[in-house]
Design a protein that fits this description.
The chain is elongated. It is an alpha+beta fold. 10% of the residues are buried. Strands 3-2-1-4 form a four-stranded mixed sheet, covered by helices on one side. A hairpin with a 2-residue loop joins strand 2 and strand 3. It is built from three helices and four strands. It has two domains: 59 residues, no CATH class; 82 residues, Nucleotidyltransferase, domain 5 (2-Layer Sandwich). It starts with 22 loop residues before the first helix and ends in a 12-residue tail after the last strand.
C-alpha cells in the first residue's frame, strides 16, 4: 500500500486533470481523525490502540444510581470469545429517553465454561428487553438460541 502522504507530508497521489485528492485534503483528514485510524486507513501502517477509545474529557459518569421510574428499555450486547487471548464482553444498558446508563458489565477471558454462567446470571439479574449477540461466533453456545 502506498501511504497517502510522503515523508515531507505531501500527497503521494498527484494526478493530472484534477483527479484524486490533494495534500490539503489529506492534511485536513489527518487533523479530523484519531492517529490510529489515520495510520491504518490512510498510511497503511496500523497499530494497536492503547488506553481509552474515547477522550476522557468526553466520557460521562454517574454514581451508579439510576433515575426514578422504569427504563424505556434494558438491553445487553454480547461479544463472545473463544480463547486465543480474546475476552467475552457484555455491557448491560438501561435506557431512559436519550440517556444510556451502563449498569453492569461482564468481561472475562475464560472459556465458555467460565463465561456462560456469568452471562446467564447477569441476564437473569437484569431481565433485558433485548440481547444482541455477536452473530459470527456461535452465539448459541451461551444460550441465545
Amino acid at each position: 500500500m502506498i501511504p497517502a502522504l510522503n515523508e515531507a507530508g505531501e500527497n503521494n497521489f498527484d494526478y493530472k486533470y484534477d483527479l484524486g485528492f490533494d495534500t490539503e485534503y489529506y492534511q485536513d483528514m489527518k487533523e479530523s481523525i484519531d492517529d490510529a485510524t489515520w495510520m491504518a486507513r490512510y498510511m497503511g501502517n496500523p497499530y494497536i490502540r492503547e488506553g481509552l477509545l474515547f477522550p476522557a474529557d468526553e466520557l460521562r459518569y454517574y454514581n451508579g444510581v439510576l433515575p426514578d421510574g422504569e427504563p424505556d428499555r434494558i438491553m445487553a450486547v454480547v461479544d463472545t470469545a473463544w480463547g486465543g487471548g480474546d475476552s467475552l464482553s457484555m455491557p448491560v444498558a438501561y435506557i431512559y429517553g436519550e440517556d444510556v446508563y451502563i449498569q453492569d458489565v461482564v468481561f472475562n477471558a475464560g472459556d465458555k465454561t467460565a463465561t456462560r454462567p456469568l452471562v446467564l446470571g447477569t441476564l437473569k439479574q437484569h431481565h433485558p428487553h433485548m440481547v444482541r449477540w455477536e452473530s459470527n461466533n456461535g452465539e448459541d453456545e451461551h444460550g441465545a438460541s
